[in-house]
Amino acid sequence: MHRIVLQREIRSRASHKALSWFSSSNLFRSVHSLPFATVEAEGISGSQPAEVQNLVQGKWTGSAAWNTLVDPLNGEPFIKVAEVDGNGIQPFVESLSKCPKHGLHNPFKSPERYLLYGDISAKAANMLALPKVSDFFTRLIQRVSPKSYQQAFGEVYVTQKFLENFSGDQVRFLARSFAVPGNHIGQQSHGYRWPYGPVAIITPFNFPLEIPVLQLMGALYMGNKPVLKVDSKVSIVMEQMMRLLHYCGLPAEDVDFINSDGKTMNKVLMEANPRMTLFTGSSRIAEKLAVDLKGHVKLEDAGFDWKILGPDVEEVDYVAWVCDQDAYACSGQKCSAQSILFMHENWSTSSLISKIKDLAERRKLADLTVGPVLTVTTEAMLEHKKKLLQISGSKLLFGGEPLENHSIPAIYGAIKPTAIYIPLEEILKPTNYELVTKEIFGPFQIITDYKKDQLPMVLDALERMHAHLTAAVVSNDPFFLQDVIGKTVNGTTYAGLRARTTGAPQNHWFGPAGDPRGAGIGTPEAIKLVWSCHREIIYDFGPVPRGWEIPPST
Questions:
Q1: Cis omega (within 30 of 0) on the bond before 456?
Q2: Which positions fall inside the Aldehyde dehydrogenase domain (predicted)?
Q3: What residue segments make up the domains of the chain, in order of their start?
Q4: What percent of the chain has pLDDT over 70?
Q5: Backbone angles phi, psi at 43, to 5 degrees
Q6: Cis bond upstream, residue 543 (ω within 30)
Q7: Class of residue 460 by CB neighbours under 10 A (exposed 0-12, middle 13-18, buried 19+)
C-alpha cells in the first residue's frame, strides 16, 4: 500500500511539473480525447472495433488484409490489425535500405539530433506523467494483455521514468568518446560509439509498452533507423505510443512500424538485411533468427528463472509475498517470473508454503490478479501438470485446476496459480530434468527443497540450465551469497533477504548473461552495448620530423 501511495505522489508531482507545457500544448481537445490518440481504451468493443495501422516512410497506412483479434476476456472480436503480407513488404525494405551504415546521426554527422531526442524524451516523459495519459495507456495495456491495474501501470511508470532519465543532454552523453595520447606529436587515438544504421526490433506481447519503447528509444538515441514489430495481439499499445511520440516531435520518417506474422517479418529481415536485430521473445525463435541473420542479433530470450532460499529464515510473510508476486503477477507471463523455488530445509519447516498458497488463492479474475495466458492453452498447462505428477515423490501443492466462471476464449489459457513439489534428486535425473525445467509461460512453478550438504546439487541443477536471465538468492548470510553468486551466471541476479526474480525498472541493467548475443535494456550501459559499436579514429597530423628520410624496406 505504501508503494501505491508513493507512486501516486510521484505522479502528482510529475503532473504539476508538466502542467505548464501541458496547457500550452492545448492537450485536451475534448473531455474524452487525447490529441495523439485514435482510440478510447474502454470504448473498444465488437460494435466499435479499433484499427491498428502500419507506419512506413513517414506515413500511416492500412493493408489489404486485416487480422481481427478477439478480446482475451470474452472472445468478442474487438481490434482489427492491418497486417502486411509477403507481397506488401517492399516499402519497408526500401525504407530500411535507404539508411546508410553510418546512421541518421553520429558524433560527426548531424549531432544536433542528439539534442532533438533529449527534447522528445522530455516532452514524452511529461506527457506520460499526466494522470489522464498514464491511465489511457494503463487501461489499453489491460485490454490486450490482461493484468492488474497496478501491474499495467508499472509499465507506464517505468517507461515515463526512462524517458525522464534521457531528457536534456543525457542522449548526447551516451555518445561520449575518449582519447589516448599517441606515440609522437600530432598523434591521438579517439574511441567513439557508432550506430549500426538500419536496425530491427522485435518485441513480445507481455510488456506491450515498456519493452518496445525502451529498446526503440535506445536505438534512436544512438543514431539508428529502426523498423519495429510488436506482437500483433498487443501492437495497438505501441501504435498509440508512436502517435504520442510524433506529437512530441519525433520525425515521422525516423521509425517504421510494421504489423505482420512471423513468416512475413522474417522475409523483411532477409531482404532488408538490417545491420543489427534486437529480439525479445522465445528461445526457439531467437536461435532461428541468429542463424538466419548470421549472428547480427542481440537477444533477450526466455528464462527458466530460479530462486534459492538460504539457511537464514526471517520475515516469512514478506518472503512469501515476494514469491507470490514473482511467480503469479501478470499470470506468470514475465520472462523474469519465478519458475522454480529451491528451499533450504530450514524453510521447509516454516509456514512459507501455506502462506504462498493463501496469497495465490486470493488472486481473482475480477481484478485481473490472475487472468488469460496468451501463449499456452489450459489443456497444455494441465497436460504438463499431469506429466510432472508422474515423477516419483511429486505432489500438487495448490492450483492445478482451470479457472471457473469465465468467458476467456479457448485459444488462451486459464488456470489457477499452480505449484508442484518435486524432490531435488528426481529433478536431477536425466529422464526428468528437461521436463521439469520446461518453461511454462503462465502461473506455474516448481518447488523443491534441499539439505545443507545438498547445495552442490542445487548448483548443478542451475549449471545445466540453458537460459540465464534473472535469479534471486534470498539470504543475508554473506558466505552463502558469496558461494551461490560465485557459481552462477544469471545476468540480473537479486541478492539478500528482499531478493526477487521479477522487476525490470529503469534504474538498473536487465538482461541475460553468459551469451555474447545477450541484450540489456534500460540503462546507458545497455543502450551502448545493444545499439552501438566501437569505432576508433586515430589522428596523425604530424609534423613529420625535420630531416626525415625514407628508411630501408622492411
A1: no
A2: 123-495
A3: 48-300+522-531, 304-493
A4: 94
A5: -95, -5
A6: yes
A7: middle
The residue to which cell 527458466 is assigned: 304
With cell 521447509, the residue in question is 348
| Tens-place pLDDT, residues 262-276 | 999 999 999 999 999
Pairing of strands 305-309, 178-181: unpaired
Give domain 48-300+522-531's CATH superfamily: Aldehyde Dehydrogenase; Chain A, domain 1 (3.40.605.10)
Compute the Cα dihedral for 285, 531, 265, 412 and give only its sign.
Answer: positive
> 228: helix, coil or strand?
strand
Rounded distance, CA 519 to CA 336, Å? 14
Distance, in Å, from the CA atom of 415 to the CA atom of 378, rounded to the nearest integer, reads 6
In the prediction, which pLDDT does 15 show? Answer: 44
pLDDT of residue 504: 77
Q: What residues does 278 pair with on adjacent strands?
A: 201, 298
Q: How far apart are CA 190 and CA 108, in angstroms?
A: 13
In this predicted structure, what is the pLDDT of residue 18?
42
Residues paired with residue 297 on neighbouring β-strands, in sequence order = 277
Instruction: Please state the three-class secondary structure of 346-402 as a single string.
Output: HHHCCCHHHHHHHHHHCCCHHHCCCCCECCCCHHHHHHHHHHHCCCCCCEEEECCCE
CB 345 within 8 A of CB 449: yes
Cα distances (angstroms) measured from residue 502 to each of 183, 306, 335, 376, 447: 50, 11, 8, 20, 17
Rounded CA separation 30/225 (Å): 35
CA distances from 480 to 322, 417, 453, 483, 494 (A): 20, 30, 12, 5, 14
Residue 177 has, within 13 A of its CA and on its CB side, a CA count of 17
What are the beta bridge partners of residue 217?
A: none
- Eight-class DSSP state of 342: E
Reduced 3-state DSSP string for 252-288: HHHCEEECCCHHHHHHHHHHHCCCEEEEEECHHHHHH
How far is residue 79's CA from residue 143's CA, in Å, rounded to a whole number? 10
Residue 214: count of CB within 10 angstroms of its CB: 25
Q: What is the CA radius of gyration of the chain?
A: 25
Residues of the chain predicted below pLDDT 70: 1-32
Residue 5, number of CB atoms within 10 A of its CB: 9
Domains 48-300+522-531 and 304-493 share a fold: no
SS (H, E, C) 171-212: HHHHCCCEEEECCCCCEEEEEEEECCCEEEEEECCCCCCHHH
Which residue type, as a one-letter code, is found at position 128? L
Q: What pLDDT score does 29 carry? A: 39
Stated pTM of the model:
0.93
- Residue 465, SS3 per DSSP: coil
The residues, any chain, with a CB within 8 Å of residue 5's CB and separated by 6 or more, are none
Nearest to 281 by CA among 262, 256, 267: 262
Query: What's the pLDDT at 302?
Result: 73
Q: Which of 433, 184, 443 is nearest to 328 (CA)?
A: 443
At 515, which helix (H) or strand (E)? none
User: Was domain 304-493 assigned CATH 3.40.309.10?
Assistant: yes
Residues carrying an active site annotation:
300, 335
